[in-house]
Amino acid sequence: MKVGRQVERFRSADGKHLLRLFSRGEGCFYFVELSEITENGETFWTTTQTSPEFSTLQEAKHSAAAKYAWLKEVC
Asked: Which pTM value belongs to this model?
């Protein structure tokens, strides 16, 4: 499990996806994509992907934008 400080957060227009960008110090950034799931009447967030680490925040954002079409709608 990676740790760090959240530096940016984006939620999809439909409210079903969340992208959190984290910093683990100088030159160490990554993102976590989560999806909203409802099971047995209970709604919760589940991690769908954790990225590898990037040397800049911009590289992490670029990689996330290439993976998730919904992100282009909210950035």
From this structure: 0.88
- The DSSP output letter for 1 is -
Q: Which residues pair with 46 in a beta bridge?
A: 35
Single out the residue of 5, 19, 4 nearest to residue 72, CA to CA. 19
Place of tokens 């079409």: 69
Nearest to 47 by CA among 15, 17, 6: 17
* 34: number of Cβ within 10 Å: 18
User: 23 is in which domain, residue-wise?
Assistant: 5-74
What is the pLDDT, as a whole number, of residue 49?
95
Count of domains for the chain: 1
Query: Residue 37 is which amino acid?
Result: I
